[in-house]
Each structure stands twice: as C-alpha cells, then as structure tokens.
TrEMBL record, chains A, B:
Species of the source: Aestuariispira insulae
Keywords of the record: Cobalamin biosynthesis, Methyltransferase, S-adenosyl-L-methionine, Transferase
Family indicated by similarity: Belongs to the precorrin methyltransferase family.
Annotated Tetrapyrrole methylase domain residues: 14-217
Keyword Transferase: yes
GO BP terms, alphabetized: cobalamin biosynthetic process; methylation
A GO molecular-function descriptor: precorrin-2 C20-methyltransferase activity
Pathway linked to the protein: Cofactor biosynthesis; adenosylcobalamin biosynthesis
Cross-referenced SUPFAM superfamilies: Tetrapyrrole methylase
Protein name: Precorrin-2/cobalt-factor-2 C20-methyltransferase
Superkingdom to which the source organism belongs: Bacteria
Amino acid sequence: MSIAEEQGTTTKGTLYGVGVGPGDPELITLKALRVIRDVPVLAWPAPLEGESMARTIAADHLDGHHKEIPIRMPMEVARFPAQQVYDTAAVEIAAELDKGHDVAVLCEGDPFFYGSFMYLFGRIAEDYPVQVVPGVSSLMATAAAIGSPLASRNDVMTVMPGPIEEDLLERRLTQVESAAIIKVGRHLPKIRRVIERLDLMNEARYISHATMENQVVSSLSEVDLEKAPYFSMILVHKRGEAWK
Amino acid sequence: MSIAEEQGTTTKGTLYGVGVGPGDPELITLKALRVIRDVPVLAWPAPLEGESMARTIAADHLDGHHKEIPIRMPMEVARFPAQQVYDTAAVEIAAELDKGHDVAVLCEGDPFFYGSFMYLFGRIAEDYPVQVVPGVSSLMATAAAIGSPLASRNDVMTVMPGPIEEDLLERRLTQVESAAIIKVGRHLPKIRRVIERLDLMNEARYISHATMENQVVSSLSEVDLEKAPYFSMILVHKRGEAWK
C-alpha cells in the first residue's frame, strides 16, 4: 500500500504509451525498459488468440511482477467493431490508474505513428496524466533493412495507408520524391497496379516483418499478391541513388 | 592484431550507421549500445567548433577505447561546400575499414531519415559492407513531446523540409491530413505565412530540441520568427482530436 493509499488521498497513476520498437528485441530503448521495469501494470494488444507481438518484443525484460491486461482483437481492425474492445480496456486501465498504479501500454513501433495506442489515449488522456515514450518505428526499420535512405535533402516524403482509394494513392505517388505505403496486406493488388501504371516498379521495394527473424525483402514483382501480411510495407524512392 | 591481419588476408571492416535517437540519452537502443561498445572506431558529425550532439547523446557509454573521427561542418549544410568534408571523412573511414576495423558513425535520430549519414553511405556502400541501426526519430519524439498523435487510421501524412518553395509547401499542406515540417530554422517566416493563409494556426504546434533539456513546445503564434533553430519542427494535424 502506498503512502497516498494509507492516507486515503490516492494520486492518480500515469498511463505510459511505450514504444518497444519494430520487432527486434534489441531495438528497444533504455527509457522503455526503465518504464516497463518501474510500473506495476502492463497492457498490450494481441490477436484474439495467440501471442502479443509487443509483449514478445519486451518479454526478456519481464520478471513476473506485473499485473497484465490483454487487449485482444483481430489484426485487421477495420473489419471489426473495435470500439467496444477499447472501451472495456480503458475502463480496466482507468481502474488501475484510480488506485494510483502506473500502467504501461506496450506498443509495437512508435505509439503515435498509426498505432492503436491512440484509441486508449483518446479515452483516457482527459482524465489522467499520459506520457508517451517514442520508439523506433517500422518506417525507419524498413529503410535500414532495405539498405536505402527513406528521404534526404529537400525530398518531400509521404506516408500512405494501404486502404486509401486507388486514385488518391496514384495522385500522391505522382507528387512526391519518396513514399512509404504501410498496412499493405490485402491491398497489395491495388497498390501494385498503381505502381506499375506510374512506371515505378524499379523504384519500389517490398518488406514484411522488418527486423524480425522472418523478415522478407523483395522487389514488388516477386511478391505473392495474395499473401502480404497486414504489417508489410512498400517503399518508393524516385531519386534512387541521388544521395551520392 | 586480428587473425586475418596475421595471415595477411585482412577482411574489410563494416561501416555501421547508428541511430542514437533524438537527444534524450535514454532514447538510445540496446542494439546501438552493443554496436558502439563492440567497434574500435567511432565517427561523428559536429559543428566547426564545439561538441557533437550525436556524441553527447552516447557519451555515458563511451569508455575511452575508441579511435574517434570527427566530421566537422556548419549546421546549415546548404550554405557550405560540404562535399569536400564528406570526401575527406570517407577516405579516413575507408582506411580503417581496409585495416579490418569496424566503424560506427553516430547519427542523431535515425540515419536514413534526412540524416547526413547518407552522404557517407553514398561514398562507401559500393566498396564495403554497411549496416544501419535504426533509431528513434525526432519525428516520433516530437509527437510524444507534444502529446498528440502524428497520424492515425487512414491519414495521409507528409514530411516536408523547411527549405522547399512556398507554393509547393502550400499545395502539399492543402492535400494532407497530417504534416511535419522539418529543418524549420530560418524558413519559419515563410512557413508561418502559409499556415496562416490556410487557416491552420490552431492545428499547428512548434517544437525545438525535442526530448532535450532545452526543449520548447509552443503554438506557432508565440514563436519568435527570427530565432527558430535548424533542428526545430512544426506538426500540423488537421483532424485534431479525431482519434477519440
């Protein structure tokens, strides 16, 4: 029992959104490790069945002292009424914060870069203190794995989620020097169609599971159109080797 | 002397581009620390006089065993014939790689996200093995410091360097849900003009020195137009609190 609890004047706990990096457990930061070690409660997203990627990344640093709150839902949230899952998780997390317990939500990559953390953030930030520990994003990890700069000098770079409409994707790709298309998954046939139409096949690289043991890097022409996982990415850099 | 050197068949060393994160020394990764510990030679960018930010971030982990190669130039490279500096540094680094010594270049943020590492990469990657250790980018660190998501759901997000032309900046800002304008520096008056014209002042936040002790976060209307440092950033998120 904390001093605050003994005095009956419990201070609210802090919610931490902790980026644990893109997959390689070595790409976690010292700050993420410190926060994870210090909090009594962890929450983590996971599929309906099976392991949480974010928890797996941090697993070597967990010593069994945490209460853990799983947040389970299908990988492709768009197909699913996810609001209720976040509502339930937010209530459970808030109950811990009310007791004065800090809670760390483990987030793949970076919490604020297209991360599901923001759905908890939106439900909790008005009533409780929130801090975000930025992490190595899959965007930077992908460029490192491919061995090619994301952007340089005065390049304009655009990040586009795979689900956006085909004509919008085509217009934006036409306009920029560098682009990352994220959340590729089942949208790969559409994305490949656009890239072929713009004659950018040679400038495009496909990657899935960046920095993990099952990482795949390939040219776009060699990818099975039906088998791209949700967490795959396509990088297009028109200036090619112009950084030399 | 290594076995290879004894046998007169020296294997080339590897060049590592090591992201050390945005400024807070706790935002360095375990992998960056391991590579730094294991290599015999470090190189780091620095201003003509004074300390290297990248080296300062890693300083607590340096034990004096490294040979160090400073790469000194003015902060705003565009004003300066930088090519010769990189040519000289590449020759010095290549001489170490030829001896079989691995060399780690310390990079603020992430090496491949608008980093000066790519100028060394372009000079060395054809002849020597190169590996990049991705780091926490100032982009993600800035969003964490501001306490507001960079992008979510199907947002299109664009990154624009401050030096691009005013009309291009305006067109791109019109088109996207979320934007980061990096390398603000002396381009702030132009950038603010565009943001005012598009009526986005309430959606814009200014930050400099993210995660460092001298971090500044403010609304754009409160920033001194003449005093923005080169490493400052403006985030614009049109959907505001739409992640709730």
